[in-house]
Design brief:
heterodimer, A: 251 residues, alpha+beta, Ubiquitin-like (UB roll), two-stranded antiparallel ribbon, B: mainly alpha, 3 helical TM bundles of succinate and fumarate reductases, 9 helices, binds protoporphyrin IX containing FE, binds iron/sulfur cluster, binds FE2/S2 (inorganic) cluster
Chain lengths: 251, 237
C-alpha cells in the first residue's frame, strides 16, 4: 500500500519545527506502525538525510516509550493499543497520516517525535514507591487481600507511564498517570503504609512540573493505551483530601 | 505556607473550590427557579411581588445572598485562573489534527467550560443590572396588597420581556448554562472524589436531567410573559 506521511521535524527544543511530507509506496499491511517508520528511515539514511527520531524499546506494548500523536490520536486512532501495537492494516491505501510529538509544556521536545518525559520520573521519585526492602517474592497467600481490590489495583498498575493522557488532555494534566500510581499503591497492604504521605508528595511534584489542572474532560481515559479509568482520578482526589484533612502530612 | 493555604493553592484544592461553589450555584438555581415560576401566576404579580419582598428583607436570606455573590465571584475568578494555567500548560503549539474522544461526558461542554462560563458571567451582569439593581436603587412602581406597600418588580420583569431581544438573550443564556452543567454537574462530584460504580450512573442521570430541565423551565418563563400567557394559579387568596 501507499501512504503519505506528514511528520513533524524539529532538530532541537529551541529550534523551529515544521511538517515535512514523505511518500512511501512499499508499505505492507502486516507492518507495525514503527516498522513502517523504520522503512522510511532506511530510505532517508540511504539518501543521506536525517532519519526521523522516535522513541521505542520493547515494541510489545509494555515500556511506554513509543509516543507520538497519529492523526490527532496519541498512539493512533485504535483505542487500547500503543503505537508499536498499531498495524498498517488499520490504514487504507492512499491514506495521508499526520504524525506529531506529544505536546505539553512539561514534555519539552528533544528531537522530532521524541519528548523528554523526565517530569514523570520526578513524580515517581516524589512518592511512587514503597520504602521497604521487599526481599524475595512473597508466598502467594501470605498476605490476605480481597480479590476485587487486587483486581482494581492491578488495573491501575497496568499504567506504563507513557504520557498519552497528558498528550490527549486539553489542559495537559497528568492526573490520570498520577492517579493510577497512587491508586495502585494505596490499595495494596505494602503501599498503604505511606499512602497519606505519597498522595500529597506526588500531587505537589505534579503541580511543580507545570502540568495543567484536571477538568474531568476524560480524553485521557479515551486515549490511554492501557484503558486506565478516570475513576482513579476520583480516588486520587479522595486520597488527597483524606491526607490533607486527616493526617499530619504537610507537603 | 500553612497546610490550608497549601491545600487551596494546590491543583486539587483549586478544583475543589470550583466544585463546591459550582454545586452551591446549582442548588441556588433551584430556589431561583421556584421563585421565577411565580411570574407565571395569573394574579397580576401579587404572589411574585410578595415573594420578592420576602427574599429581599428576610435576614437569613440576605446572609445567604452574600454567600451567593461571593460564590459567583470566586467560581468565575478561579475558573479563569485555571483556564489560563491550563492553556499555558498545553503550550502554544497545538496539534495539526484535532480530535476529542471522551468517556461519559459532553465533549463540547467539557472543553469549552471557560467560554461557557464567561457568557454566563456577562449574562449574570446584565440580569443583575436589569432587576437586582432596580430592586435595590431603582425607582420602582409600588403595588399595594391588602394595605401592604411592596415594590412592583413584576411590572419591571413583564415590561423587560415584552422586548423580544431580551427574551432571545435570556433563552440563549439558559442554553449556555445548560451546556455548562451538562459537563459541570457530574464533574463536580468527580472532583470531590464522589465517583463509584454504584451511584455514579445516578449522578450522571440526574445531572443530565437537571442540565436540560432547569434551564428549559427558566427559559419558558420570559417566552410565556412575552406571549402574555399566564397558566398557573395562585395558592394565595
Ligand atoms: C449559574 C452559574 C454557574 C453554575 C451553576 C456553574 C457550575 C459549575 C460546575 C458544577 C462546575 C464543575 C466543577 C468541577 O468540575 O469540579 C463548573 C466548572 C467551571 N465553571 Fe462554572 N458555573 C456557573 C457559572 C460560571 C461562571 C460565571 C464562570 C466563569 C466566568 C464559570 C467557569 C467555570 C469553569 C472555567 C469551570 C471549569 C473548571 C475546571 O474544571 O477546570 N462558571 N461550573
Ligand atoms: S495513565 Fe495511560 S496514558 Fe497515562 S501514562 Fe499511564 S498508560 Fe499512559
Ligand atoms: S515500544 Fe514499548 S510500548 Fe511501544
Amino acid at each position: 500500500m501507499k501512504v503519505t506521511l506528514k511528520i513533524w521535524r524539529q532538530s532541537g527544543n529551541d529550534k523551529k519545527g515544521q511538517f515535512v511530507e514523505y511518500k512511501l509506496d512499499n508499505v505492507k499491511k502486516e507492518m507495525s506502525f514503527l516498522e513502517m517508520l523504520d522503512v522510511l528511515n532506511e530510505q532517508l539514511i540511504q539518501k543521506k538525510e536525517q532519519p526521523v527520531a522516535f522513541e521505542h524499546d520493547c515494541r510489545e506494548g509494555i515500556c511506554g516509550t513509543c509516543n507520538m500523536v497519529i492523526n490527532g490520536f496519541p498512539h493512533g486512532p485504535q483505542q487500547g493499543t500503543t503505537t508499536c501495537q498499531l498495524h498498517m492494516r488499520h490504514f487504507k491505501d492512499g491514506d495521508t497520516i499526520w504524525i506529531e510529538p506529544f505536546r505539553a509544556k512539561a514534555f519539552p521536545i528533544i528531537r522530532d517525535l521524541v519528548v523528554d518525559r523526565a517530569a514523570f520520573d520526578r513524580i515517581i521519585q516524589a512518592g511512587g514507591y514503597v520504602s521497604v526492602n521487599t526481599g524475595q517474592a512473597q508466598d502467594a497467600n501470605a498476605i490476605p487481600i480481597q480479590k476485587e481490590i487486587v483486581s482494581e489495583a492491578f488495573d491501575a498498575a497496568a499504567c506504563i507511564g507513557c504520557g498519552a493522557c497528558v498528550a490527549a488532555c486539553p489542559n495537559a494534566s497528568a492526573m490520570l498517570f498520577v492517579s493510577a500510581k497512587v491508586s495502585h499503591l494505596s490499595m495494596l497492604p505494602q503501599g498503604k503504609v505511606e499512602a497519606k504521605k505519597r498522595a500529597q508528595a506526588m500531587v505537589k511534584q505534579m503541580d511543580e512540573e507545570g502540568f495543567g489542572r484536571c477538568s474531568n474532560v476524560t480524553a485521557c481515559e479515551a486515549e490511554c493505551p492501557k484503558g486506565i479509568s478516570v475513576a482513579n482520578i476520583a480516588r486520587l482526589n479522595r486520597e488527597y483530601l483524606g491526607s490533607v484533612f486527616t493526617s499530619e502530612v504537610n507537603a | 505556607m500553612n497546610w490550608f493555604t497549601n491545600f487551596l493553592s494546590s491543583s486539587i484544592g483549586q478544583k475543589i473550590i470550583m466544585s463546591l461553589t459550582g454545586l452551591f450555584l446549582i442548588t441556588f438555581l433551584i430556589v431561583h427557579l421556584t421563585g421565577n415560576l411565580q411570574l407565571l401566576i395569573h394574579d397580576e404579580g401579587k404572589q411574585f411581588n410578595l415573594y420578592a419582598k420576602f427574599m429581599t428583607t428576610n435576614p437569613l436570606i440576605k446572609l445567604t445572598s452574600y454567600l451567593l455573590y461571593a460564590s459567583i465571584l470566586l467560581h468565575a475568578v478561579q475558573g479563569v485562573v485555571l483556564w489560563q494555567k491550563n492553556k499555558n500548560a498545553r503550550g502554544n503549539q497545538g496539534y495539526a489534527k484535532k480530535t476529542n474522544r471522551v468517556v461519559g461526558t459532553n465533549s463540547f461542554a467539557a472543553s469549552n467550560m471557560a467560554w461557557l462560563g464567561i457568557v454566563i458571567f456577562v449574562f449574570i451582569g446584565l440580569h443583575l443590572y436589569q432587576f437586582w439593581l432596580q430592586m435595590k436603587l431603582g425607582n420602582l412602581p409600588m403595588a399595594n396588597y391588602d394595605g401592604v406597600e411592596v415594590k412592583n418588580l413584576y411590572a419591571i420583569v413583564t415590561q423587560t420581556y415584552s422586548n423580544p431581544v431580551y427574551v432571545i438573550v435570556y433563552v440563549f443564556s439558559m442554553a449556555v448554562i445548560g451546556f455548562h452543567l451538562l459537563h459541570g454537574f457530574q464533574s463536580a462530584f468527580q472532583t470531590l472524589g464522589l465517583t463509584h460504580k454504584k451511584y455514579t450512573p445516578l449522578i450522571k442521570g440526574v445531572g443530565t436531567i437537571y442540565a436540560i430541565a432547569v434551564p428549559l423551565l427558566f427559559a419558558i418563563i420570559p417566552v410565556l410573559i412575552y406571549l402574555k400567557i399566564f397558566p398557573l394559579s395562585s395558592f394565595l387568596h
